[in-house]
Amino acid sequence: MSDYGAGYFEGRQRDEALRAAMRAQEVERVASRTGLAGGTVVDVGCGLGELLDHFPAGRWRRYGVEPAASARAACEARGISFDLPEGEGWCDLVLLRGVLQHLDRPVATLADARRWLRPGGWLVALQTPNAGGPAYRLFRELPALDPPRNFVVFSDLELRQCLLNLGFRRVELDYPYLGTPYAHPLRDHLRFALRLLGVRRPFAFWRNMMECYAQA
User: In sequence order, what are the beta bridge partners of 211?
Assistant: First the structure.
């Protein structure tokens, strides 16, 4: 198991303003695409619980899955439970934000999510690196990746086919870039050109990241 101790989460706080702005956009898109305003939600790899803060306890039963003990303690203080119900068909929404590449058995986790979901429920993968995008296909790396903690980097086509094979009846993919807090098109395109020349600078880019909405 990779190290996801307190230091890992503290390191992410340096750009928390950007992360918070991105989460707010993502939650709006989730509500718009799924039509869900309440129910049962599970955040797989929930970290400190910041994403679930956008799902009010008065309207949502909130569950998390998280390997780091320090992060689980922070989530429990937010009222997030880790005691997932038993059986099948008890969940309306499963979230995986920036987590698929961190899973040693991602297909098994996606299969679990399919079993948890009620008919018509949604699996939503946010902030997911896309191995099918131009930057990854050219350079075999993306700024969002953390190689020591990564296992499988899906392409958009691979992820879509995997979810269909698991029994999801509807799978849609989006590629947020323009309008996100991370997008600086002039700088990003310049850094893309420099990377072609061997100069390494992190940059957001078209299809670097994907969102997936899959309905059970």
Answer: 174
Number of helices (H), then strands (E), in the chain: 7, 6
d(CA 98, CA 104): 14
Give CA–CA dist 92/89, Å, rounded: 8
Instruction: Tell me which of 6-15, 113-122, 152-161 is least confident.
Output: 6-15
Q: Show the domains of the chain with their CATH numbers.
A: 6-215 (3.40.50.150)
Torsion sign over Cα 149, 156, 47, 178: positive
- Which amino acid, residue 11? G
- Which pLDDT tens digit goes with each residue over 85-101? 999 999 999 999 999 99
Report how far residue 125's alpha carbon sits from residue 205's, in angstroms, rounded to the nearest whole number: 18
Both tokens of 103, joined, read 């899973």
